[in-house]
Design brief:
- By secondary structure, this protein is α+β, with helices and mostly antiparallel strands.
- It has helices at about 35-40, 45, 85-90, and strands at about 10-15, 20-25, 30, 60-65, 70-75, 80-85.
- Strands 1-2-3 form a three-stranded antiparallel β-sheet.
Length: about 110
């Protein structure tokens, strides 16, 4: 059984710099592409330490859901990122997720 907190209902580009995710539990999140790129768990990114990608490298060429539990991102420099939806949800920094529920900007 899929947890509604980690099930992606819809995705959309927000401006030119962020991904919007609507979750099945009614929550919505906005992820700057920079945040997604820096969250890449691959060995090359982990070994890179504090070397930040350039703004051009932080632009995705393709974003797609793989099944119910993974998000795939192919970046403009051909780097690929695979995040579990549990990891993606944990990256949300809205007021509610950041521990400030008195100032929510999200529905759930």
């Amino acid at each position: 059984m899929v947890d509604a907190r980690t099930q992606v209902k819809a995705m959309k580009e927000i401006g030119r710099y962020a991904l919007g995710v609507d979750w099945a539990d009614g929550h919505d999140s906005i992820y700057p592409y920079r945040t997604l790129r820096r969250a890449c768990p691959c060995e090359a990114c982990e070994a890179g330490g504090d070397v930040a990608p350039t703004p051009a490298e932080e632009k995705p060429r393709a974003i797609e859901l793989l099944g119910d539990a993974s998000l795939f991102v192919c970046w403009s420099d051909e780097h690929e990122t695979l995040l579990l939806t549990t990891e993606l949800r944990a990256l949300c920094r809205c007021a509610r997720c950041a521990g400030e529920p008195d100032y929510p900007i999200s529905g759930g």
